[in-house]
Amino acid sequence: MPALRVELSPQALLDLEEIASFIARDDLDAALSWVDRLVERAQRVGAVPRSGRIVPEVGEPEIREVLLRTYRIIYRIESRRILVLTVIEGRRQLERTLRKKSRAARKR
Predict the structure, then answer these.
(1) N or C: which end of the chain has fewer CB within 10 A?
(2) Average pLDDT, the chain
(3) Which burial class, exposed, middle or buried, applies to 82 when counting CB atoms under 10 A from its CB (0-12, 13-18, 19+)?
(4) Strand 71-77's sheet: what is its strand order?
(5) CA 59 from chain center: how many Å?
(6) d(Cα 41, Cα 35) in Å, to the nearest integer?
(7) Is residue 80 classed exposed, middle or buried when 0-12, 13-18 and 19+ CB atoms within 10 A define those classes?
(8) Domains in the chain, please, with CATH?
């Protein structure tokens, strides 16, 4: 199977901005470096899409995740691309995070 293109959803981009802002309070260079590492990890999924585990809270074979330290990069395998859905700190509960983001999207 050829490598799939990896794209970041608007939510994933927002997540990365929030992560960078949080880390930048202490160290801007570290924030930029960390976000770069997260994006690089997400990009590597395109070569081997099923290498990530199925997200336990979702249970769908096409929704998977890879980890980088305590961060979860959650993505969906589609026919021609990988779509990164969200990037969250792993100690946060995914269900609570998705509910919160869904409510915010409905208010827009």
Answers:
(1) C
(2) 89
(3) buried
(4) 5-8, 81-89, 71-77, 63-68, 53-54
(5) 17
(6) 10
(7) exposed
(8) 5-107 (3.30.2310.20)
Q: Which two three-digit tokens encode residue 94?
A: 């995914």
The two tokens of residue 96 are 């609570």
| Rounded Cα–Cα distance for residues 73 and 2 (Å) | 21
CA-based end-to-end distance of the chain: 39
Strand ranges (DSSP E) for the chain? 5-8, 53-54, 63-68, 71-77, 81-89
Residues 6+ apart with CB under 8 A from 106: none
Amino acid at 6: V
